[in-house]
Amino acid sequence: MAATQLAAGDRNVADNSVIPSEPAATATSAAATTTPSRATPSNPAPAPDTTNPESYEAQHVHQVYNTIAPHFSATRHKPWPVVAAYLASRPPGSLGLDVGCGNGKYLSCVPPGCFALACDRSDQLVGLAARSQQRTTTTAAAATQSSSQQPQPQHQNNQALVADGLALPFRDSRADFAICIAVVHHMSTRTRRVAALSEILRCLTPPGPSFDGSDLGAESGRAGGGGTVMIFVWALEQSSSRRGWGEGGEQDLLVPWVMKGDHGREKKKKGGKKGPAAAAGDGQEDKRIGQDGEEASPPAAGKPDQTFQRYYHLYREGELEEDIVAAHGRVLSSGYDRDNWWAVASRAAPS
């Protein structure tokens, strides 16, 4: 029933009961290049084609993530504490969205008694999220059967589907909460970034007419404040990190993702390191693991390193709040965490 309440009948919703096939290698349209075994610096992005941003993002975002999906997912296991705490505070009966869910790691943080629909533009990542959720369902069912205690509500009914963040297949004013983690910064123009935020806000339950933003309980998605969304974007101000980016620097970059070849495997054998793969220049790893990750599968014989360039817009301080307001939202709280700016927002109260 919860899925029916959220899914829009007049939009093209993917059949989330069907798990996509195992991720397959995507063609070289993802613009991979072979590289030596070393960290690759981030480069200023070529000027986005404002006349055809969809094509630009297809090359520098969507095709890349479909190609690296298993390898990328292998470095994304542990939820960030700030996001997990936000989800844990959702009251029972809440309906939510995870927009740009990746491998679905945050679905396990949705509290019992709540329901979430997760979506991503990458069908390969959605396939991984769906399989992960299926394993959760199987594990929960087995635990219930082996226990003599009264079954407790679980989160195994959460679902994942393919959707475009600029045209979400969800009804207006239905979601009590939402998260959008490390997604909006992949939009190549401000118009599209604001539109992505506006689309999420459209799905949230609206605040009451008397809501003035002073009710701290509004962040729960109740108490008259309407639904809320937590948003994370990569920060420009990272002078204390290994990347050295800072105020006044270039905001539009191509950030490399490196998949190790045979010499990466040799390094593992000699040094005994846990992960032979590298994600050069990426600040989104779990628990600040730097460049090291875990490969989803051993590299093929004779395979060199491959570098995939992903577009990012690095947000300066205050820019996320400006975009939320431009999207007709209200900023309830905001901060800085793990080289990212974050904010919790609701729809603006009706005048």
Automatic annotation (TrEMBL):
Region (Disordered): 1-54, 137-157, 262-308
Gene3D superfamilies noted in UniProt: Vaccinia Virus protein VP39
Biased segments, Low complexity type: 20-42
Cellular component terms (Gene Ontology): cytoplasm; nucleus
Domain of life where this protein originates: Eukaryota
GO molecular function: S-adenosylmethionine-dependent methyltransferase activity; tRNA (5-carboxymethyluridine(34)-5-O)-methyltransferase activity; tRNA binding
Keywords: Methyltransferase, Transferase
UniProt cross-references to SUPFAM superfamilies, sorted A to Z: S-adenosyl-L-methionine-dependent methyltransferases (SSF53335)
Pfam family of the protein (one): Methyltransf_11
GO terms under biological process: tRNA methylation; tRNA wobble uridine modification
Name assigned to this protein: Uncharacterized protein
